[in-house]
Amino acid sequence: MTEQAKCTIGVTILQNGLAIGELYEPTLPDTTGEESDTSSQNNDGGVKTKCIGWLTNGNLSFKKYYTGSAADETLRTSISDRTFYNWTVVMPHNFNSGANGYSWNGQIAKSTLVADGSAPAYLDMEVTVNGKMTPTSTAATGLTTTFFSIADDGANALTPSPAASATVFEYEVEAYSDTVTVAITPIATTGTIYVNGVIVATTVASGAITLNSGTGSVTMIPITVSELNKTPTTTWLKVRIGNTAQP
What we know:
Blueprint: E1 12-15, E2 18-19, E3 23-27, E4 31-37, E5 50-57, E6 60-65, H1 70-77, E7 85-90, E8 101-106, E9 108-114, E10 122-127, E11 134-136, E12 148-152, E13 157-158, E14 160-161, E15 170-175, E16 181-186, E17 192-195, E18 198-199, E19 209-210, E20 218-226, E21 233-241
Parallel strand pairs: 15-21
Antiparallel strand pairs: 1-2, 1-7, 3-6, 4-5, 6-10, 7-8, 8-11, 9-10, 12-13, 12-16, 14-15, 16-19, 17-18, 17-20, 20-21
C-alpha cells in the first residue's frame, strides 16, 4: 500500500436528493455475516470451519444541529411516517474528487432531539439499510458554466465569493439586511438538479428560499446534481445577512 490517508471532513448525506446540512459524527452502516459451524469429523487437522449465511446491515447514524427550521422538523417527525427514502452518503471532494458514494433504500429508525443545555441542540438520527448498499465511484458532472446565479426578493443579483467555477463547491454570499428570501438559478447540462432538495430545471429560477433572519445570520443552501449510477455532486451556498439594506 502506497496511498496516503485522506481526511474525511465534508461527508455529505442526502435524503431523496436533499443534502442534510449541519451534520456531524456520521457513521456508515456496518455489515456482519451470520456464521454457521460447518465442522465435521473429517476436517483436516481437527480445525473447525465456518460459512457465512445471512448478512445483517447496521444503521447509518449521524447527528445534526437543530435550528427549529421547517426542514429540521420534517426530518425529526418523519420517523412516524415509516417512509422509505433513498439515502446516499458521499465522501468529500478532497477524497478522490468526490467520486465515492454509497446508496440504499431505508427508513428513519431513530430521531431524538437533544436539548439539555450542555451544547447546541441537535438531532440524534439513525437510518436503516433495506438490502444491499450500492457503491458508486464516478462523480456526477455537477454544475456547468455559468454554474448558478442568486437573486434576492428585491430582484437584486447577489455575488458569490469566490467566483463560480467547476472546482469550487462552497461559496460565501452576502445578502442585504432586509432580505427575506432568495432564488437560485442553477445550470447543468446533464443530470437532475436539486436546489434545497427541490427539483429545478437548468436555467430556471428556484422557488423562494427563506433565509434565517437577523444581521449576521447564516443559511446553508445546497445545490445537488444527480446522475444515474453516479455519485451526486453537491455545491453549498453560505448566505449571510449583511448590514446594508436593499437599494
